[in-house]
């Protein structure tokens, strides 16, 4: 059972990395989600799915380690929040650039900022550039 979960975690990790290397932003976001699930499955598998003998129970009782399960549950909740935030960023990127390709986003250039001194008065040499308060 554990070898099957470890093999599945490895396959999911490979799939997630393959999706991360794509130029489509939707696949990158999905790749992050798949890679997170692979890591969660790997941590859960490393925590021994079958369980060992319980510390304070009868001889025949077995119990699974609760620490990896608690860590994975926390990681699932955090990963879901991150995934929803990434989808919101993906939607905004689609609205701004009209394309979900990383090339289109990186090629888009913003207009340079206007010169901040263009609307200000010339400095007077006698007062070190300070403005006098209106009287």
Automatic annotation (TrEMBL):
Membrane-topology descriptor: Multi-pass membrane protein
Species this protein is from: Azotobacter chroococcum
Entry GO CC: plasma membrane
Region of interest: Disordered: 101-135
Name of protein: NADH-quinone oxidoreductase subunit K
Membership in a protein family: Belongs to the CPA3 antiporters (TC 2.A.63) subunit C family.
Entry annotated with the keyword Transmembrane: yes
Lineage of source species: Bacteria, Pseudomonadati, Pseudomonadota, Gammaproteobacteria, Pseudomonadales
Xref: PANTHER family: ANTIPORTER SUBUNIT MNHC2-RELATED
Alphabetic keyword roster: Cell membrane, Membrane, Transmembrane, Transmembrane helix
InterPro entries: CPA3_antiporter_subunitC, NUOK/Mnh_C1-like
Compartments in which it is found: Cell membrane
Transmembrane stretches, start-end: 6-21, 28-50, 70-90
Chief location of this protein within or outside the cell: membrane
